[in-house]
Amino acid sequence: RNAGLKQLLPQTGLVSFLDSDDISPTGRFKADLACFGEDPGLDLTYSRMTLVDKIDGETLEPAADSHSITVRGIHLSAGIFARNLIERTGGFDEDFKQAEDTDYLLRIFESQTKYVMPDTVALYYRRHPGNMTKEADVPFREFMRAIHKSMKRRKADPSLRRVEGIFDFKDLAQWRFL
Predict the structure, then answer these.
(1) Which of these CATH numbers, 2.60.40.1640, 3.90.550.10, 3.40.50.410, 3.40.190.10, describes 2-167?
(2) pLDDT digits (tens, 9 = 90+) for 110-122
(3) pTM of the predicted protein model
């Protein structure tokens, strides 16, 4: 990700990320980009994601028999970031084995970021046996390390915001975790 950010063209105004095993829904950017047009001072739109266990290979939409739930959670691909926000935040912490994206998002939400949270769906997050988050201890340890770093930053600098509102898990009991 850091290598990609270094390759941004000078005229690049907005940045989005997408992991290789996730899908960006058709029309994903239209509504969120309009938010930037309405407010030129906006730093970030942070949308929802749909967790799915099956994607239709032709339509690239959740399969008819897929288990799915739409939530707001920590996922880098849920955001569209203004270039100046990326520059203010700096790069991803390459000491992380995983959860560097969580650390990055926490740093963004802690700062004086101007953001909106539209109800649009930014990605289909595919849950499958090969997900990195399915490894035994590494994902949990790295996620907790990102949370700990956030706590330490906020303790050292009380002007940093508490991170609120980026988790919204409605009807989670209906989701079958794989």
Answers:
(1) 3.90.550.10
(2) 998 999 999 999 9
(3) 0.88
